[in-house]
Amino acid sequence: MKKNHLLSGKQIWLSLVLLIALLSSSFPVQAQGLSFPAEINKSFTPISIAAGEISRLNITVFNPNSFQLTNAAWADNLIGVQPGISIANTVNLTNSCGGAVTAVAGATSVSLSGGTIPAQVGATPGSCTVAIDVTSTIPGNLINTIPAGGFSSTGVGGINITNTTPASATLQVGGVQAPSLSKSFTPNTVFVGEDSRLAITIRNNDLNATLTQTSVTDNLPAGVVLANPVSPTLANCGGAAVVTAVSGTGVVALSNLTIPPNSACTVRVSVRSTTANTYNNTIPANAVQNQQGVTNASPASAVLNVQNTGVVKAFSPTSFQAGGT
Fold first, then answer.
1. Which of 74, 193, 288, 292 is an S-S bond match for 52, by CB 3.0 to 4.6 Å?
2. Angle at CA 150, nearest 5°, toward 159 and 138?
3. Which tens digit of pLDDT belongs to each residue from 76-107?
């Protein structure tokens, strides 16, 4: 009987598997589709603020690819174009990109590292957003830009996906009028050991902006101290205002004052001296601090005259008929 030289179906299948494995090891197959650059968009909300107010900076990355982007990173230098913008005291960070965001109150840069941008779904690009609060005390049109190539990420197959166009936004910061400062003693002449009321007044000269987080410190001249009791009073200084004034010390510290537009805040305390003298009490220029970054251009001074205790006598009337009183 002749031998059958025809291969069975199982043998043919095994031969094809071996052939495919051989070809795969010799010629690796790369299944990779088209890739597109990422896009970055940024915005300020609101786009216009008065000096010291808060705006929300939003930085959004869009992924137009059918695959997610990993190791996403970018850095935004807030003063890269011109000085002025900084991160607000309360950062108020939100982040839908994952990874790590570096944003420190008072700093002038914010960055993302290790983020993930989801893939495009249908005609809608994948996206994620990092948002923080920013502020400025420098008036003008402040431009903030992340340049082309400022974003980096890893796509399918390890390819680098970046942005080929810059992302820019402008924050308009309006100027605020400088406040004025004045002070007085009532009465301004007392005897040794008597009390006088010291008044410190900060006037907000701007017609639109409120002065917030306002503070000033008055160092009394040597020989004058806060009385006991100090009896501090405040007028039009905001409900959260703080007066630090301890009997027997020579420092009056005012903080967290809120002064509405075109109005004045006045703080009064009692002072005294045990030494007769003429005391000149001055708060220097640039002593007022606030969130708006404006201060007093001129010093504020007041004089307290302290006299030795004396006896005064008089006849009234000084002339009268005999027998009169």
1. 292
2. 165
3. 999 999 999 999 999 999 999 999 999 999 99
Report the C-alpha gap between 57 and 84 in whole angstroms.
Answer: 14
278 class by beta-carbon count within 10 Å (0-12 exposed, 13-18 middle, 19+ buried): exposed
Cβ atoms within 10 A of the Cβ of 121, count?
A: 9
CA–CA dist 316, 321 (Å, integer): 13
To which H or E segment does residue 14 belong? helix 9-26
**How far apart are the C-alpha atoms of 17 and 26, rounded to whole Å?**
14
The token pair that represents 179 in the structure block:
């406040």
| C-alpha triplet 270, 276, 277: angle, nearest 5° | 90
Q: What is the pLDDT of residues 122-150, one digit of tens each?
A: 999 999 999 999 999 999 999 999 999 99
